[in-house]
Amino acid sequence: MGIISIEKADHLFWLGRYTERVFTTLQTFFKYFDRMLDMDEKAYQTFCGKLTIPVIYENMDDFIDKYLFSLEDPNSVYSNMMRAFDNAVILRDELSSDTLSYIQMALDGIEHAKLHGNALAYDLQPVKDYLYAFWGCLDDNVEDEEGRNIIKCGKYLERLDLYMRLDFPYFYIEKEFNKFLNRLYKIRIGYNRKEADKLTEVMNLKEGWIVRQQDALNALWNIF
Amino acid sequence: MVEHMEGINRLMARYGVKFGIYKNREFHEQLFPFDPLPRVISAAEFRYLEKGLIQRVDALNCFLADIYGEKKIVKDGVIPEDFIFSSKGYLPQCEGMMPPKKIYSHISGIDLVQAKEGTWYILEDNLRIPSGASYPMIARELTRQASPRTFMRNHVVDNRDYAGMLKEVMDHVNTGGIHVVLTPGRYNAAFFEHSYLAERSGAILAMPQDLYVENNRLYYRQYQGRQLQVGTVYRRLSDEYLDPLCFEPESLIGVPGIMDVYRSGNVALVNAPGNGVADDKGIYYFVPHMVKYYLDQEAILKNAPTYLAFYESDRKWILEHLEMLVVKDVSEAGGYGVIFGKDLTKEKREELRQIIIREPRRFIAQEVVDFIDLDIVEGDGGVPRKADLRAFVLSSGTTKVWPSGLTRFSRNPDSFVVNSSQGGGFKDTWVLSQ
Q1: pLDDT digits over A98-135, tens only?
Q2: Virtual CA dihedral for A89, A190, A154, A69, nearest 10 degrees?
Q3: Which of B367, B400, B420 is the last residue of a domain?
Q4: Which residue on chain A is closest to B181 by alpha carbon?
Q5: Same domain (yes/no): B241, B323
């Protein structure tokens, strides 16, 4: 690693984003799943609203099925995992076959759960495990810091975006914001400094950031 | 090994050991089925094959240098010029070009079969971009993990340094700069191999858009804007798409100007463009003649008995014995264009006869070599299936044969066609050290 083309930098960045999207939306899905089971069958609509994805689902069961497993639904976990794989597969020489194998297994895990699953949380746990293993393997196997910074910049940008949208407590948001900035300053990709400063300004409001939630999100989306 | 078959195939899936195939214009990736029973080649047999393969590839390299240079073999009447200049693989754009270190075929994939009585026959030479080495490479890694003691007991030559041999080839011809493996992209049938070989050999996997030409040098485009010169391109895309300024102008996957850089000696292309003229199925007939002509030796390895429809006497024989021959269209590859006379209806056979009469240069015919079956695991037992061997010969300062190879087998009990694109599987190839 160390010799990275423009296209590979792009794939590294998006690999970071999509793997994180799968991981965090899976985690959050189960919180909403709980809510739907107990009292609020339409909680999925709130979930979709926060992620600004269209509510194309007829009911709770339709949401569970399509949002997790439909390739026709571009916002589904499966579609996002497929995009993570598409970005990863051309990075074998950067990531190593061992690191790449965890992305393959996470994808296979979703396909397996789709075909054979009957206990969602249990069946999808391996997907999260493989993604954890992927991140660990990446740190362990990929020597070059530059590539790691790009992929982690994508990862923390995505996580920050999702945490801000999904109303995570400020404590978590602040932690992810710091991780993101740390990587942002290290990568040698041009970014919009004004927007980064604007985001910092909102984050400096601490718990009060929420009153300017949309400003923070806009700044984050415009950094690249 | 048989006990571990399922586990090994699971590991293959984990590592994405796949090949791509287009069906109804759609790209599908599928696992390349692995059979755990290896083909075993004794040490003595390998020494014999090694000698014959080195001789053959050396002669083919001499032929390529001659054809794009003086053409003595044509002038001396050893090969009719019809077989050179009408070959699809002959590229007039390569006339007078001499590749770095004068090597044309750096990586040669030579397909062989072993007849039931033991004789090895060459089926075809692949000198353009032969693929397949990555599969036995990774299979050995995984089978050694699954059943290490099998290897301890059987004295199998370690084949895991193919990437090292490949690097040696790239180092030898490098004109100054990094090594890249140039892939047409993610949706190429052999993409797994491209990415795996890049990883293992320490080369950079490059997409066509990552490379550009400036001041008659080839560069890799880095994301920070830094220029990085390329010294060797192990290109895994066909000649016609390599450079739109030199070959197919509509190619979107080529690198404009790369042929000029190559012509100036500022980059090495592995394998050299224009090699197709030497692995044309029509030229195959003449390889033993090349061995004699260039090396003044008798060919050690035999061709399968072959007839050229181009020669009147051969044509007459072909037309009279069509039902016992396998007819090959010289312009096809990958198991396509192979017709077994015995499988044709009377009408279809007559149709083929007429095409051969009309286009004799287009066809060769071979006697069907009754090659040995190798057992593959099916259900609880073993069943015999036809299998060939692709040997990999690497040419740098010296010519070397990789002590392994890709053994492909047909999964269909009635078929002689072993290509992966036709549904075949593969085995590891063990060369014994004693």
Answers
A1: 999 999 999 999 999 999 877 788 889 999 999 999 99
A2: -60
A3: B367
A4: A93
A5: no
The pLDDT tens digits of the residues spanning B350-403 come to 999 999 999 998 899 999 888 889 999 988 889 999 999 999 999 998 999 999
The CATH number of residue B357's host domain is: 3.30.1490.270
Which structural domain range is residue B270 located in? Answer: 5-297+371-431
Q: Where is pLDDT greater, at A20 or A31? A: A20
pLDDT category of residue B335 using cuts at 50, 70 and 90 = low
Q: Which residues pair with B126 in a beta bridge?
A: B109
pLDDT tens digits for B130-148?
Answer: 999 999 999 999 999 999 9
Say if residues B206 and B183 touch (Cβ distance below 8 Å): yes
Is pLDDT of B192 > 80? yes
Q: Which chain B residues are closer than 8 Å to A151 by Cβ?
A: none
**Which DSSP helix (H) or strand (E) runs through B141?**
helix B134-146
Tell me how far apart the terminal alpha carbons of chain B are, to the nearest angstrom: 21
Region label for A88, one of left (φ > 0), alpha (ψ between -120 and 50) or beta (otherwise):
alpha
**pLDDT surpasses 80 at B333:** no
Partners of A93 on chain B (C-beta within 8 Å) are 181, 195, 198-199, 203-205
Same domain, yes or no: B323 and B264: no
Residue type, B116: K
Contact state of A93 with B204 under an 8 Å Cβ cutoff: yes
Residues B228 and B357 in one domain: no
Which of B138, B181, B195 to mutate to probe the A interface, most A CBs <10 Å? B195
Among partner residues A3, A7, A96, which is closest to B228 by beta-carbon distance? A3
Q: And the tokens for B48?
A: 């014999």
Chain A residue numbers with beta carbons less than 8 Å from the beta carbon of B206 are: 5
Could you state, in order of their start, the residue ranges of all structural domains in chain A?
1-143, 154-224
Residues facing residue B143 across a β-bridge: none
Residue identified by tokens 């590539």 is A147
Q: Is the peptide bond before B174 cis (omega within 30 degrees of 0)?
A: no
Choose, out of B212, B223, B227, B229, the residue to mutate when testing the contact with A (most A CBs < 10 Å). B223
| ipTM over cut 0.85 | yes
Whether B56 and B110 map to the same domain: the answer is yes
Query: Which residue from B257, B262, B264 is spatially nearest to B243, judged by alpha carbons?
Result: B257
Examine the pLDDT at B2 and tell me if it is beyond 70.
yes
The DSSP H or E segment spanning B408 is strand B406-409
Q: Which of B281, B278, B384, B288 is nearest to B326 (CA)?
A: B281
Residues 6+ apart with CB under 8 A from A22: A77, A80, A81, A84, A106, A127, A131
Task: Clarify whether residues B79 and B24 are in a common domain.
Answer: yes
Say yes or no for a CB contact (<8 Å) between B199 and A92: yes
Instruction: Quote the strand ranges of B281-371, DSSP E.
Output: 302-303, 306-308, 325-329, 338-340, 363-367
CA distance A189 to A201: 22
Size of interface A-B (CB pairs under 8 A): 66
If asked whether residues B108 and B172 sit together in one domain, one would say: yes
Q: In B294-334, which residue ranges form alpha helices assigned H by DSSP? A: 312-320
Assess whether B143 and B15 both reside in one domain.
Answer: yes
Q: Looking at residues B406-421, what average pLDDT do you find? A: 80
> Domain tally for chain B?
2
- How far apart, in whole angstroms, are the C-alpha atoms of residue B207 and residue B38? 35
